[in-house]
Amino acid sequence: MNSCRVIRVVARARRGRHIRRRGELPAFETIDAANELIGALVMGLWNRLTRHQERSASFRLTRIEVPTTREGMRKLALLRRQELEGFVEGLFGDKESLDLPERAHKALGTLAEIRAMLEASSKLAEDPTKAAEPADIAVTLGHFRKLTRIAEHEIHEVVLSCTRARRQMMQALPTTKPVLH
Cβ atoms within 10 A of the Cβ of 8, count? Predict the structure, then answer.
């Protein structure tokens, strides 16, 4: 999908009465319309990822300010978890398994551990029977910032190691010059 079409899809959604508040996705009349917007968003993420195939251009997850509350903790944990899930889904596509370089495999294991911690934190924040003092939430949000930096590094390592492996594979392929007539 080209960027002009993406802009039209988003503009159509904004003109409609479908967006009730900021940050909410519009209601869609057809599954094709939903798929068109979601495809545009996913392609945008992957286009951003292609810029990070050089060691000097590291990947950054979305930065948001959240209040030091249960809801803030839940929102940040959910956002990070969705970002990590989106990255892995985008990497694997429709495949169940991939033959990845060892470094990418190790990084994906780390990302899976971070994702599990974020999911557990989100469930904890949703449970009103669990104690959650503002000071404890502030400490947890600090841990989320550290996990964010680790996740960014690991995503970057996956991208770099897969890029390196692809380049090596392409260089190993025999190249033949076309016969000119």
Answer: 13
**Distance of alpha carbon 27 from alpha carbon 49, whole angstroms:** 28
Residue 20 in 3-state DSSP? Answer: coil
* pTM of structure: 0.65
| Range of lowest pLDDT (2-11, 142-151, 164-173) | 2-11
Q: 28-51 burial, b for 16+ CB within 10 Å, e for fewer? A: beeeeeeebbeebeeeeeeeebee
Per-residue tokens: 94: 């429709």
- DSSP-H helix ranges across 25-174: 31-50, 70-92, 102-126, 134-172
Domain ranges for the chain, please list them.
1-50, 67-181
Question: Which of the 8 DSSP states describes residue 179?
Answer: P
